[in-house]
Specification:
CATH class: Alpha Beta
CATH topology: Rossmann fold
Structural class: alpha/beta
Distance between the termini: 24 Å
CATH superfamily: Response regulator
CATH architecture: 3-Layer(aba) Sandwich
Strand content: 15-25%
C-alpha cells in the first residue's frame, strides 16, 4: 500500500497549478487536495506563473505546457527555476519527443500525461517529496 507522500513531514507539499483550462485546473486542485497536498494558487499564463512562484514559493509547480499568451509552460518553468530554484512537474496531453526534450532541460521532477490519473499524480509528487525532503 502506498503511503501519503505529503506525510513525509508535518507540512503538506505546497503546489502551484499552472493550467490554461479553468475546469482542468479546478479538477486538478480537487484531486491534489484529496491526495493531501496544499494548492497555493492557480495561474493560466507564463507571466502569472512566474510572479506567483516568486510570491508564494511553492515546493512544486504543476506546469501545463500549453498556456494562455505568447510563452509556453516550458519557458515559464525555465524562468521559475532560474529565479527561485523551484522545479516543476510538467502536465500535458502532448508528449512528442521535441516537447519532452525541451521540457527535460528544465530539470523537472517528472512528466504527467493528461488526462490525469490520481495514482500517476501521486507517484510523480511522491518522487518530488523524496527529492525535496530526502536531503
Amino acid at each position: 500500500m502506498m503511503t501519503d507522500p505529503s506525510s513525509a513531514s508535518d507540512q503538506p507539499l505546497r503546489i502551484l497549478i499552472v493550467e490554461d483550462e479553468s475546469l482542468a485546473a479546478m479538477a486538478l486542485e480537487e484531486v491534489l487536495g484529496m491526495l493531501g497536498f496544499t494548492v497555493v494558487g492557480i495561474e493560466d499564463n507564463a507571466d502569472g506563473a512566474i510572479a506567483a512562484a516568486e510570491r508564494w514559493r511553492p515546493d512544486v509547480v504543476m506546469m501545463d505546457i500549453r498556456l494562455l499568451g505568447p510563452r509556453d509552460g516550458i519557458e515559464a518553468a525555465a524562468e521559475i527555476r532560474k529565479r527561485t530554484g523551484i522545479r516543476c512537474i510538467f502536465t500535458s496531453a502532448f508528449g512528442d519527443p521535441e516537447t519532452r526534450h525541451r521540457a527535460a532541460e528544465c530539470d523537472p521532477f517528472g512528466f504527467v500525461r493528461k488526462p490525469y490519473f490520481p495514482a500517476e499524480l501521486q507517484r510523480a509528487l511522491g518522487h518530488a517529496v523524496e527529492i525535496l525532503r530526502g536531503r
